[in-house]
Amino acid sequence: MNKEVNVDALFLGPKSENRVFYKEMMEYAITEHMHWRSGFHPEDSALVTPRAQHQPDFRDTLYRTEGILRDLSSRLKNKSVPWFSPRYLGHMNADTFMVSHLAYVMTMLYNQNNCAVEASPVTTDLELEAGEDLCRMFGFDVSKSWGHITSGGTVANYEGLWVARNLKSMPLAIARHEGAKDLVAGMTEHQLLNMKPTDVLDLTDELKKRGMFEEVRELSVRGAGVEPGKLGKLLVPRSKHYSWLKAMDLLGLGQENIVQLDVDGNYRTDVQKMRETTLRLMEEGTPILGMVSVVGTTEEGSVDAVHEVLKLREECEEKFGSSFFIHVDAAYGGYVRSMFLDENDQFMEYDALVATYRESEIVPEGVVWPKRDVYDAFKAMSEVDSITVDPHKVGYIQYSAGAITMKDKRIVDLISYHAAYVFEEAGEDSGDEHSVMLGSSIMEGSKAGAAAAAVWAAHRLVPLNITGYGHVIGRGIVTADWFASKLATAEPFVIQGRSFEVRPLMHPDFHMVNFTFKEIGNDSLADHNSLNQRIYELCSYASGRAYSKDFLTSSTSLSVEEYGDTPCAYTSLRGFTDEEWQKEGSVYILRAAIMTPFLRDEMRFSQYWSNLRDIFTQILTEIVDEENKKAMSHSAA
Ligand SMILES: *Cc1c(COP(=O)(O)O)cnc(C)c1O
């Protein structure tokens, strides 16, 4: 059997090309479920009788049901954003897998609740298996790690910070407990607050042996609350997702305890400055609650040097005897690690990797991917403490599916509301799944078993390595490279004697391509920003029905508040003076995540590009016309 996945067979397709199969399986899901119902105690009689079905108000209720659904369908068709089309290049959205839709619908009919195994005997297993898949993808030892599905990356980040917080406070709790304090005898408060994550977890093992784990746990922040500033600083890059602000707020840690790390010209955490900041905190004696690296920043798709963070932690351990928790926010980029794994899920050597890409035509000659430091960053992910990843982004699975994975599953007991210890009781061979009670060990409570089934099914069909997701994600990466190259060399658009030049912000680490238009000769950054904002409006739902648009994208504004002066490198490259940057303090950019799997063909792409040039010409013409009209009405007034 050919194990390489055929990408075109994974999606319904922009024109519903695979409709026959899709409908057949959708019907199969529904029919099977109906059999399941009628087969349950066939001796029981039907309770909705034909007589009841002939009541006028019965039929009336069905009419109203139909009416509501027709209304909903028309609303959806009228205003939803058509992610499935290659004309949509904006947020991290594209067509999503048929297998996940079908698995979701099929499972939804059974309405399972993954809060507790008694409400989801099948789907809790599927969730744990999907979690293992992700752990394996990240290079964690599957028998020692743990992962599960969340509603999204936001909640996964909350959970990452939640375990980091509770872990950080655990040594203080031990020191406070009469029966346990000998475990940390002689340690100063400073030392207690700077222990290695694994050393703290080893102590929890000891507490469990002594039967005092629960008691001590209640003396940690979870019982005692958070003393302001006590647990130290969270270091996050300026490129962070705003869920980190919410997380610090929500967990009582306070946003003022965030230390923002500057980013470099590639919008990655500036390694040198990260070092300086970290070492300064170490010298001051300020504990580091955790360090966040972003793999695939939300706005630029940039990949932080995770390997440098690990090196820095080692250095701190050696020099200062101080350690900290490392979380990788790979909500966007996490699935990309599958691009580096061979068919046996082993992380490939760089040269072998590139050779494999050429051989299997995943990344053709001439496409710059992966950059060496991006490769190193992905490789290093296996060493970090926890990772957020979103199946509903680059997993090509519909909402709602995020995930959190943790390298050392003992950490879950720190947030668990289960009598300890989830995993020991529900070990692989115990067969006693009744003790798996997800709801008591995670942030959420009741949750859709259907979402877990959707992720699980995708992972079964599309291996999390080069033979599966490698092909799917590779298509977007290659298309993004082509798109960025076209933008970098595009001839200006000439509209009524005015010339507009388009350029990319930078060559992407992953598949987010940011770009702006600039009128040649107009060096006002304010004008540049309003031009791009207007283009965005004309290329999004913001100016009417998304369905009527020829091209759709997203946008963002890189501001001095968020990024410091980093964006100034781009504005000056585009010919704006530093004074313009100081005055305006932000640059408005168009932002395209290239997830579509349907443009990875040179002929097709060049056709697409020439079509897109025409669309941009039209849009710029519309804007120039608007401006002319405005100028006329001003002069008339
Ligand atoms: C999207 C994203 C999040 C938030 O994930 P949701 O699924 O939207 O909750 C967090 N971090 C990063 C880097 C993201 O790109």
TrEMBL record:
Keyword Lyase: yes
PROSITE patterns, per the entry: DDC_GAD_HDC_YDC
Protein name per its UniProtKB record: Decarboxylase, putative
GO molecular-function term, one example from the UniProt record: pyridoxal phosphate binding
Residues the record lists as N6-(pyridoxal phosphate)lysine modifications: 393
SUPFAM superfamilies: PLP-dependent transferases
Species this protein is from: Photobacterium marinum
Residues spanning the membrane: none
Example of a GO biological process term: carboxylic acid metabolic process
